[in-house]
Amino acid sequence: MTQQRESLTRLIGFWVLLGIVIFFFMFPLYWIAVSSIKTRAEVINRVPSYIPYAQFEPTLDNYTSVLLGTTIQSDTGVRASADLSIFRDRLMNSVIIAGSSTILAVILGTLAAYAVSRFHIRGESDLMFFILSTRMLPPIVVLIPIFLLFSNLNLRDSYPGIILLYTTVNLPFVVWMMKGFFDEIPVEYEEAAMIDGYSRLEAIWKIVIPEAIPAMAATAVFSAIVAWNEFVFANLLNRTYAATVPPWLNSIIGVGAVEWGRLAAASVIFVIPIVIFTFLVRNYLLRGVTFGAVRR
Amino acid sequence: MADSQLAQRTRSTSSAGQIRPRFGWFTDRWIAISFLTPTMLLLLFISIFPLVWSLYLSFTDWSVIKDANTAPQWIGTANYFELLTDDRTWQRFVVTGQFVLPAVTIELLLGFGVALLLNRKFAGRGAIMTLLLIPMMLSPIVVALFWRFMMQGDGVLNYYAVNLFGIEPILWLSDRYVAPWSLVIVDVWMWTPFMMLISLAGLSAVPQYLYEAAAVDRAGTWFRFRHITLPMVMPLLLIAIIFRTMDAYKLFDQAVVLTGGGPGRFTQTASMYLYDVAFGQFNTGEGSALGYIMLIVITALANLLIRALNATKSA
To answer: Which of A195, A259, B31, B96 is least surrounded by CB atoms within 10 angstroms?
Structure first.
């Protein structure tokens, strides 16, 4: 009886602690989401309100205005200080750039990883360390020469430039992840196929790749998130044509009074793909965030 | 001639089986080369070459604006000498250190604590885990934006500071003593899930029989934690510390949005200082030298941590 009661208090303690943890990590997300469906007046209301319909009348104006590029008739008569109508263009750029660079990085990195995993290459561990070391650098160190290089080659503010850059940023990650996965696929699969008359290329295409598809998908998602979120290079290299969302979000805050309702809507739209991705790759997260160093 | 062709053909068919396979001419050697080349070229061209170029520039007084049409002037180690004798440089590294140390420590303790909490079976565990992992997947820019919204003068945090705790509104982002801690709070929010994830992996790998053996010996909770849990989890925790330290050391995005280095320069990190030198003052050579100083510091730090990791692994 006493033991049961003790376990009950422990259970309550457990859920209370868990509740505090969940509150701390979820509150900012909830706050931005709830602010995105408030009217302009409600957003700047100093008394916080949390429950739509009960505490305030929700509106989708913020979403329609950032997506359609229309301006909201401001109820204070003050014109919005920053132009939020280009959000659509920035979002489109983010999709194209993150998408293309991810596809490129996964294709090239998977090929390289296969070669390192299956063939005897002289200085293999040195090669892998070399690939890894290019990722471990603080990006700010190569910022200056990349800026000069891209200026000289006319690659600044262009799709090819930033796509190639993000591909290179993600390549070491893809090679390390995919090498780990290939090492786990038994060589016997291909050898059996090759005894049956397949060439190695056919064996790769018909046996290995189908086996590696889930791993490639997870790797792709992680690469896409990196490209999607990148700020430092995008901010320095791109102005208009290839400008993505993160530098734009930063530039909006710098300009006078911030229209938080619409900014909240824009960032919710920007964040939704990441939340979906996180759910998709939850079983690979540990491996993904540690560069394949921790496998489980 | 016909003979040798035939001989070759026989050899290629016999080695690969009965039928000559498609793409059979594409030997392993050529596959290895053509699979590796694009990756190596991109890394050489966009990672290694810029690094070498930047090393060269760090020994010059070149400026991308002033000297756009002239060749860089070699000035030896003058940039390094100037930076290392300048108090401002040291100040930026102190600011960075004062951010990295508390941030990584709190993330480690909190993340490990949450992992201990979650290391059991309960309803909705998977869903809660995934929710908790969202912050670290977000863009630092977005995270900083959320927090700036909450931390501004009339934001939600100050509403409760005033109405719940009855204190003066806190200048989260513009008080020279508070702002550095605000950066730490935001980083803790974002990266504690990372520490939690790795700690949890370590905890679930501890063999259950060790605890059972300890229970037989009537070992206390603290003893079990100190002598079973901690040693087993330590190598993974060190990997997590290495990752977080190297990452926190680069702090740039969040600080740009949250404080912009202010008030004054009290939250200007080494990365932000480099950006300012290179693209604010356009001292390209000096900026490159600062980049290399940062690189040397982080390499030394990483080596120390990796040595600690190897020591715990062999112990």
So the answer is: A195
